[in-house]
Amino acid sequence: MRRLLDLSDLRHLLVKGLSGPQMLAFLPAMCLAAYWGGGEVLLVLCALGTPLVYAVVGGFGRWSGPLELDHLRGPSLDRVAQDFLEIARHNGQTTACFQIALPDLDQIEHHFGPDSAQEARDLIASRLRTSLRGSDYVFDAGDTRFTVLIAPGFRLRLDNLLDLGKRLRDSAETPLSIAGTTQTLTTCIGIASSLNFGRNVTAETWLGSASEALEDAVLTGTSATRLWSDRLSRKHQSRHALQHDIVTALDTGCIQAFYQPQVNARSGAVTGMEAFARWDHPTRGLLTAAEFLQAMRERQQMARLGRTMFLQAVTALQAWDDAGLDVGTVSINLSDEDLRDPDLSNRIAGDLDRCGLPAHRVVFDIPEHVIAPGTDDVIRRNIGAIAGIGCGIDLEGFGTGGCSVIAVQQVPVTRLKLDKSLVHGVAASEDRMRALHAILAVSERLGLPALATGVETIEEHGVLRDQGCSFAQGFLFAPPASATDTTLWLTERQGLQDNPSGLQLRRVK
Question: Residues in domain GGDEF (predicted)?
Fold first, then answer.
């Protein structure tokens, strides 16, 4: 027969009784009973021994090595996030998560080393903390990102969050002194407020939503801020859903080159075609490059896309030659990923040799930012090698990115491509007219012809022609079209008149 109370049960009851907070409530009574029963000696023993027993059985909390280590390292991001959500839910308050990206930190690490990059991160984290309350948290992800958690409060409305975002941006973008140089960083911010979620939201979902908002801000451009919403989340999911279809689309030829003519601004004669990537998606219809390039990058398929566009453009140019159509050159965009490929120039030279096409008939568009000071040496070598083959180099977006004249002179550029923002509405704005005149004057002094993009009206075309712009491109002449439709357009234009000046221009609304 089992004993009613064995030793283990007795020990359990003893530990439970001695380790609870009720033990402290009974301490005065125990000391008084000891004094009555045994005098002063027993009183002293009880007063000294009871706290010792209390500590041994865990009344003051059990020591744990890992917990102590976590305390020394500071609380984890997930734990603080979950605590803030629970506090906000319990008190009817609001908490918020800010995801902050500073892409330029990569450049600091590349040029000055990891120690300088860590110094920059430490300075930025310190500045962020000075912009916050003592109860808020800043977490350094160790790369180019920081996470800021705002402690629960009653006044975290939309305008308050945007104001705080501006304050955090100003702190992060204050110039830094790194390795004897002054560095100015740009930031993108994604914000997720607990108000946008139900009561059962987890820290993982909340933090992930702020990351979605940040991703949208990064895609928008530098110094952008985005607030998470259901609509933004659907957009994010849609973009990531494209990733699953990208490889198949490349394999099956669903991603095709569309072509837009480039014309002589004075005579109207077609001088070339620019190739644009288009995706004929089975359920979403025709997608522009802007709608799928980010998904293409995330699937690391940019190099394959670049090669696909190159081969299609060269094939189309040869087909136009065979048809007796006069198209001088074809222009192809090179991404940053393309330009970082050490074998890029060799591959281009090999492809041109195999198809028998002269190199000068292929022009490569490079974004203006790749020739800025501190550009990767691989990129500069590739640009020089491509020009050495004999291909043309168009500098895209000239006049909007702050690229210096010295930087342009250090790269073998053959033509300056003016951004459409310089052209739009130029006929009705004196300020735009003066800006365009100044940029075209720089183009003339450098001895580099200018190609204006985004020309949509006859008035804009007239201003460009009068200001001495050499080439023009835009919807006024034709929108981007498939190789088949472009062939029909060329046949009609070049077959209807012997004199290219008879080219009829049309207004596109």
Answer: 96-230
Q: Count each helix (H run) and each strand (E run) in the chain, helices first.
A: 19, 16
The H-assigned helical ranges of 157-276 are 158-173, 203-220, 230-252
Residue 65 DSSP symbol: H
Residue 477 DSSP symbol: T
Return d(Cα 80, Cα 88) in angstroms, integer.
12
Give all domains of the chain, ordered by start, each with its CATH number.
7-56 (no CATH), 70-228 (3.30.70.270), 237-496 (3.20.20.450)
Determine which helix (DSSP H) or strand (DSSP E) holds 192, and give its type and residue range. strand 188-193
Strand residue runs (E) in 419-474: 450-452, 471-473
Residue at token pair 């492809």? 351
> What's the farthest any 2 CA atoms get from each other in the chain?
126
197 CA to centre of own chain: 25
CA torsion through residues 431, 435, 436, 440, sign: positive
In the chain, the N- to C-terminal Cα span, in Å, equals: 98
Q: Give the Cα separation of 329 and 307 in Å (integer).
A: 17
pLDDT digit string, tens, across residues 85-118: 999 999 999 999 999 999 888 888 878 888 998 9
Give the Cβ contact number of residue 386 at 10 Å. Answer: 24
138-197 pLDDT, tens digit per residue, is: 999 888 999 999 999 987 888 899 999 999 999 999 998 888 888 888 899 999 999 889
Global pTM reads 0.63
